[in-house]
């Protein structure tokens, strides 16, 4: 536990510009770029292949030898996808549950993280150790019990049920604690001298200072929320309250080998998050750098 | 302040965990109440060859995915040294992370198809006979590992990159004065000072690799795949027992055993780290 | 008769609705607006199911039915959690190999009374399918909506190209094997047949044709290792030994049915449920034809069908029961038949089904097959022991283990599942 604490602050520095001095001399630059371009190409090839395939016909895909570019580009794959998946309805479900989960988690985690970082209360260490232990438990293990709770609450098959378990996250709490613990205490002390209570200090002083980390947590939570498959499958089997991941997975069952349609569907469902990522990449990187947890 | 988090975690995580723990000592029928059967589930588990095979598969997968860490270290170092385009490289390497796992599985299932997958076609161009990567259980774990490394590289890269940035430039300047070359600097400065980040990434990689489930599910799951029996991971076995065969007690026992394994693996790493991780 | 019945029901329902009389004797609060859900696994049948739902609402304006598609791989896991959690669909599709735990767990509506009350003529349904769902508890949980038998789909173009005659109606196992061999052309990437490990469309049929059975008559032990059953399995392993089929690995990467659609295999033994999918594939439809299963010691095909069942936890049991009878009734059979999606279980729908795909001239073979059909073996926890098939049989299919050894081991595993209580 202490080791994790030691390890984490060190990686908190993402986003800081790397000092110029470390860059290789311009003489060596081309070698670096050649290596990086080769590696980056390998990373991107599957996506390129996916996009090219999405515009082919299923007969062309099954032909040998494979064609690189679509012989006659077609949108049939996209048509099949939109005809079989209620895209906008499921998009709305994905988006709503994402917003609920992100807003809820950021608030809950910030509160608890602050408490762990600054407040003294009995059992603090034990409770925090329990939190960390939770990180090691496979999420599948919780699913049955969470399902029972949602059932008792009468929330099965609703959008809140999709979001609620994700709101309470040991990981988010851990992340926010690390953020608060590294902050100088002077600001709080000054506010407390002015007679502000704990909650007020938290709300007015600490939360604004933690904004970068809150943003990082928000984007990471968005990532997990958007990509989640098992929980939505179990909790919302009905068509209207299913997110896009489930829609896409069910498409694979239906069109097992209609690769253009599958690739088109995968592309459409991935695109929203990729766009968000490209816009907010700084927050994504900061979030990952400060946590490293992969969901 | 801590109350909302505490209540939520207790209700939605701690309680389910405890109920799973209790269920692991019970036989739970599909519908209705279960009966206590002591350690039956565990003794059955230990004599279940499927369990041992899945354990072996998970272990093999985990070891293979760890190979992604050296790759990530080298790439992170290269990116840090690049004068231009750092952000672009990071974005490109990070793309798989923001892609839906379901979509990732689909794309790779297609690339690795034995008959008309692009990989086998490319191999045939250089005279290497292709294999049925996702239909032959001699190869499936390797296929998962390639995809797992591909998916995890972006995350590892960012963490390690942040670690690299926190190494003081002066150290490099000083050693350059001493006449150390780039390679020597890498081993004498970069690696030791990066070791906390490397350790962190290793712990996380192992925890998440031991929990791997979705690649099996999307890459082999939906067709009547004859490789599936030899390719199940431990969490897939849990999923199958708990959600497909509806043997919740047995599934619970698998989950508990997995948790114990993860804890042991993590504890071992924390002991070993004293030998190689440098916190100064 | 059934139609009159439904009309009567509709008139009564309408009358009740008009007079807003709450004490109607048509089974509950018929004037109340009720919405029920109908769970099906996604597929070519969905449009027909939606049409049936709409037709039902026309007759019962106060009841709307929402069709809920679930992906096949997750159908059973989500249904089970849903049933346990009280959120299962009000009505849903059920398979004979899966019904047991639901029935014994009290999760299904007993519709015996409704059947009696509405005087449903059970002789209109295939007895073999009804028997499959008989749990021996004197209750009826649902009526079949469709029936499937097996035949051999084949690609005329590949036959023509190889100069091989189309299958005769009375062809034998040996004819089948020789035909497959002749049609195989490795250079062209064409195989005579697809021989996956497929119980319902594949080896169960040949086990029965060889005079064997999968499970003993008392349902207590496996007989898949009997000499006759082994012969039935050798039918398939021989095809692999001849290299007349793509390997199991190839069939794992690309399903047999897809290979058939891609024109890579000439023959595919399977059910009537592929008819519409093949018919709608313009690239291949013109070459598709179908022949009866070859004859072993005797003719045989396994038969099964999907049954519409109701969830015991539904809030609207009366509406659900009405819908269940309707969805398995005559009008629904007509709708299914007209769409071509599936061969309806209700007698008399066959002609309409065949007429929906006029270019497929030999669909009659599926209907003729009913005469020699055998119920699908579904004893015990069938989903579990059937799910084990690849684990035990793959080695025999690939020729690395003898059929005798593989079936012996599989029989032991099945026995263990059957012994579970």
From TrEMBL, chain A:
Record key words, sorted: Cell membrane, Membrane, Sugar transport, Transmembrane, Transmembrane helix, Transport
SUPFAM superfamilies: MetI-like
Positions of transmembrane segments: 32-52, 87-114, 126-147, 159-180, 201-226, 259-280
Bilayer topology: Multi-pass membrane protein
GO cellular component: plasma membrane
Residue ranges constituting the ABC transmembrane type-1 domain according to the UniProt record: 91-280
Record's subcellular location: Cell membrane
GO biological process, one term: transmembrane transport
Main location: membrane
Pfam families reported in the protein's UniProt record: BPD_transp_1
Top-level division of the source organism's lineage: Bacteria
Similarity comment: Belongs to the binding-protein-dependent transport system permease family.
Protein name: Multiple sugar transport system permease protein
UniProtKB/TrEMBL annotation, chain B:
InterPro entries for the chain: ABC_transporter_permease, MetI-like, MetI-like_sf
GO cellular component: plasma membrane
GO BP, sorted A to Z: transmembrane transport
Name this protein carries in UniProt: Multiple sugar transport system permease protein
Similarity comment text for this entry: Belongs to the binding-protein-dependent transport system permease family.
Record key words, sorted: Cell membrane, Membrane, Sugar transport, Transmembrane, Transmembrane helix, Transport
Subcellular location, record wording: Cell membrane
Provenance organism: Micromonospora mirobrigensis
Residue stretches making up the ABC transmembrane type-1 domain: 58-269
Transmembrane segments: 61-79, 91-112, 142-167, 187-210, 250-270
Recorded superkingdom: Bacteria
Lineage: Bacteria, Bacillati, Actinomycetota, Actinomycetes, Micromonosporales
Membrane topology: Multi-pass membrane protein
TrEMBL record, chain C:
Main location: other
Subcellular location field: Cell envelope
InterPro entries to which the protein is assigned, alphabetical: Bact_solute-bd_prot1, SBP
One Gene Ontology cellular component: cell envelope
Residues annotated as signal peptide: 1-27
Record bears the keyword Signal: yes
The UniProt record lists the keyword Signal: yes
Keywords assigned by UniProt, alphabetized: Signal, Sugar transport, Transport
One Pfam family in the UniProt entry: SBP_bac_1
Coiled coil: none
PANTHER family: ARABINOSE-BINDING PROTEIN-RELATED, SN-GLYCEROL-3-PHOSPHATE-BINDING PERIPLASMIC PROTEIN UGPB
Family label: Belongs to the bacterial solute-binding protein 1 family.
Protein name in the entry: Multiple sugar transport system substrate-binding protein
Organism: Micromonospora mirobrigensis
Lineage: Bacteria, Bacillati, Actinomycetota, Actinomycetes, Micromonosporales
